[in-house]
């Protein structure tokens, strides 16, 4: 395992904070408090980020915001990830059709990052922001893990923060592969990353009966690259409660259809 680099970690936390609060600027005291840094260490990191153009400092208010160097970095990243651009172009239409909040997410080895937001289209939605991150722990990330390498799946299961049934988790992953999308029930205000037992308690919808009613929490479908790997996911959430099973399955199919369009636009290939 690589050694931790505290200065790099602080710099990334500062950039992530400013990305998720786009249009806002913060004083050095605000940034230190929000990132858990001392004023001294925050000052040293901010000086480097400002000097290199990754942050800019207001001349009179002495507040910090995103700098011009990140613009070119972002444009270069989009060129290397055409699926993200294609997905970002598609999700506003899907959000309007479903009256839902629709986001594009990408997975790191340990986190899920919200890279684009289309909406909000729902008054029930959680209101995600671009740049936000959540831990990639069960039950979150089913749509990423369903086509992942077995070692990645085992690492994901090993990060669960509460007891869960591995057989149930693997069955959920099989169900996602067979459907082509993941469905999750709404769990109210429960903190999902802290409630890994919710996978055991029925967060994932393994079966959907057409005439039953469900409180759908999310429907998520993968966008694939040319090697059948999941590049990003398109996820809809914020649905009104009490949907019929037919409506739930229709939503899942619509999200999958959108992800399929993006896969083809990005020259990816669907698994057989």
Tell me what you see in this structure.
This protein has helices at residues 6-20, 28-35, 39-51, 69-80, 82-98, 142-145, 150-158, 166-179, 198-201, 245-265, and strands spanning 55-57, 64-66, 101-107, 111-118, 133-135, 182-185, 213-214, 216-224, 230-237, 243-244. The chain is α+β, with helices and mostly antiparallel strands. It folds into two domains: 6-72, Arc Repressor Mutant, subunit A (Orthogonal Bundle), CATH 1.10.10.10; 81-265, GAF domain (Beta-Lactamase, 2-Layer Sandwich), CATH 3.30.450. The strands form three sheets. Strands 5-4-3-9-8-6 form a six-stranded antiparallel beta sheet. β3 (101-107) and β4 form a beta hairpin. α5 packs antiparallel against α10. The longest helix has 21 residues, at 245-265. It is globular and about 60 Å long. The model is unreliable at 189-201 (pLDDT under 50).
Summarize the structure.
It is built from ten helices and ten strands. The chain has 272 residues and is an alpha+beta fold.
Find the CATH topology of the largest domain: Beta-Lactamase
Count of the domains: 2
Which CATH architecture of the largest domain? 2-Layer Sandwich
Can you give the helix content as a percent range? 40-55%
CATH class of the largest domain: Alpha Beta
Q: Helix- and strand-based class? A: alpha+beta
**What is the helix tally?**
10
Annotation, overall tally of beta strands: 10
Spatial extent as radius of gyration: 20 Å
Supply the CATH superfamily name of the largest domain.
Answer: GAF domain
Please give the alpha-carbon distance between the first and last residues. 35 Å
Q: Which segments are poorly predicted (pLDDT under 50) over 5 or more consecutive residues?
A: 189-201
Strand portion, in percent? 15-25%
Q: Sheet bearing the most strands, described?
A: 6 strands, antiparallel
- Taken in chain order, the helices and strands follow as HHHEEHHEEEHHHEHEEEEH
Strand order of the largest sheet: 5-4-3-9-8-6
Overall residue-averaged pLDDT value: 86
The best one-word shape is: globular
């Amino acid at each position: 395992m690589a050694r931790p680099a505290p200065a790099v970690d602080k710099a990334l936390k500062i950039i992530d904070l400013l990305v998720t609060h786009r249009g806002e600027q913060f004083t050095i005291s605000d940034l230190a408090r929000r990132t858990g840094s001392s004023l001294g260490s925050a000052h040293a990191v901010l000086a480097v980020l400002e000097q290199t153009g990754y942050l800019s400092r207001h001349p009179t208010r002495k507040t910090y915001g995103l700098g011009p160097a990140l613009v070119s970095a972002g444009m270069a990243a989009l060129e290397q990830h055409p699926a993200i651009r294609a997905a970002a172009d598609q999700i506003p239409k899907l959000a309007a059709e479903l009256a839902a909040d629709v986001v594009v997410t990408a997975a790191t080895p340990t986190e899920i990052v919200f890279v684009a937001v289309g909406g909000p289209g729902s008054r029930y939605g959680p209101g995600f922001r671009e740049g936000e991150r959540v831990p990639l722990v069960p039950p979150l990330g089913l749509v990423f893990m369903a086509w992942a390498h077995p070692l990645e799946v085992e690492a994901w299961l090993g990060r669960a923060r509460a007891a869960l049934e591995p057989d149930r988790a693997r069955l959920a992953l099989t169900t996602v592969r067979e459907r082509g999308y993941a469905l999750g029930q709404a769990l109210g205000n429960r903190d999902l990353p802290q409630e890994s037992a919710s996978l055991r308690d029925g967060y994932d919808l393994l079966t959907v009966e057409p005439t039953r009613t469900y409180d759908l929490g999310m429907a998520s479908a993968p966008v694939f690259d040319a090697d059948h790997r999941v590049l990003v996911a398109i996820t809809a959430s914020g649905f009104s409660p009490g949907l019929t099973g037919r409506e739930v399955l229709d939503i899942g199919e619509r999200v999958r259809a959108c992800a399929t369009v993006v896969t083809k636009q990005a020259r990816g290939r669907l698994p057989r």
